[in-house]
UniProtKB/TrEMBL annotation:
Group of enzyme by EC: oxidoreductase
Lineage, opening ranks: Bacteria, Pseudomonadati, Pseudomonadota, Gammaproteobacteria, Lysobacterales
EC number(s) recorded for this UniProt protein: 1.14.11.-
Molecular function GO labels: oxidoreductase activity
InterPro entries: Pro_4_hyd_alph_FE2OG_OXY
Name of the protein this chain belongs to: 2OG-Fe(II) oxygenase
UniProt organism field: Luteimonas endophytica
Gene3D superfamilies assigned: q2cbj1_9rhob like domain
Annotated coiled-coil segments of the chain: none
C-alpha cells in the first residue's frame, strides 16, 4: 500500500509541509558542512549492516538550538492533530480525569479530547508527554539506509527512557531521489519522503519498520520520539 490512501486506521499519520522548503534546505546544508557527524547507531551500538548513516544528535548542542526548537514546534502541531484523530493515545494508557458537573471528577472520553481547543489539548499533552532527543541523519545514495526491521521500544536502558517512547516521528528534510521510503511491515505501507513532511506512528512492535536505501540522491531526515512523562512527574512519588 502506498502512503497516499490508507484504507483503514493504521495509526500512521503524515502531515504535509510542517517545515517550509527553505528551512529544510538550510538544515541540509548545515548537516553537509558539519564536522560533528558520527556513524549512526542502533540500540546496541554501531552496526552498519543494520543502519548505515551519518548522524548528529541535537541534545544539549547549543550550535543547533535553533534547529531543535524549529523541529519541536513543527512536531507539536502534528502531535495535536494526531491526538484529535486518535485520542486513545492519551486516554487509554492514563485513565485521565477532569472535573465534571458539581466538581466531581469524571473520566475523559475520546469526544472530550477531540472537542478541546489547541490551548487545552496542548496543556494536556504537555502534562502527559515530552519531546525526545532529536537526531539528524544523512543517508548516502546507494549505500545508506536502515534496512533492519525494528521498532522503537528497547529494554536495555537501565533508566527505562527507551520504554517511555510512545510515538516516533520523522521530518523529511529533502526529496528528489528514488526509494528511501519509511516502510511499515504489518501495515504494508511505504511512506515516501517529501520535503517538510512529518511522519508520526506508534513505537511498539505493531509498527515494525525500516528505512529503505535512497537511490539517485542522498536522503536527510530529522527523527525522534514523543515520550511519556516519567511517573514521578505525573503521579508524584
Amino acid at each position: 500500500m502506498s502512503d497516499t490512501a490508507p484504507a483503514r486506521d493504521d495509526f500512521i499519520q503524515v502531515t504535509p509541509g510542517v517545515l517550509d522548503a527553505a528551512t529544510c534546505a538550510t538544515i541540509v546544508a548545515r548537516i553537509r558542512a558539519s564536522q560533528a557527524l558520527r556513524p549512526g547507531e542502533v540500540g546496541g551500538g554501531v552496526y552498519p549492516e543494520l543502519k548505515h548513516s551519518r548522524d548528529l544528535s541535537l541534545a544539549g548542542n547549543r550550535d543547533w538550538a535553533d534547529v531543535e526548537q524549529a523541529l519541536n514546534v513543527a512536531v507539536y502541531g502534528g502531535l495535536l492533530t494526531y491526538l484529535r484523530r486518535w485520542p486513545q493515545a492519551l486516554i487509554a494508557p492514563l485513565m485521565l480525569q477532569q472535573p465534571g458537573a458539581g466538581g466531581a471528577l469524571r473520566r475523559l472520553e475520546a469526544d472530550d479530547v477531540a472537542a478541546m481547543d489547541d490551548r487545552r489539548l496542548g496543556e494536556l499533552a504537555r502534562t502527559c508527554l515530552r519531546p525526545g532527543a532529536i537526531n539528524l541523519q544523512w543517508y548516502r545514495a546507494g549505500e545508506g539506509g536502515y534496512p533492519y526491521w525494528h521498532c522503537e521500544l528497547y529494554p536495555r536502558d537501565p533508566q527505562c527512557e527507551t520504554l517511555h517512547r510512545h510515538l516516533l516521528w520523522t521530518v523529511y528534510l529533502n526529496d528528489g531521489f528514488d526509494a528511501g521510503e519509511t516502510e511499515f511491515l504489518f501495515q504494508r505501507r511505504k511512506v515516501a519522503p517529501r520535503t517538510g513532511d512529518l511522519l508520526l506512528a506508534p513505537t511498539a512492535f505493531t509498527h515494525t519498520h525500516r528505512g529503505n536505501r535512497p537511490q539517485g540522491g542522498d536522503k536527510f531526515i530529522a527523527t525522534s520520539w514523543i515520550l511519556f512523562q516519567r511517573a514521578e512527574r505525573m503521579f508524584g512519588r
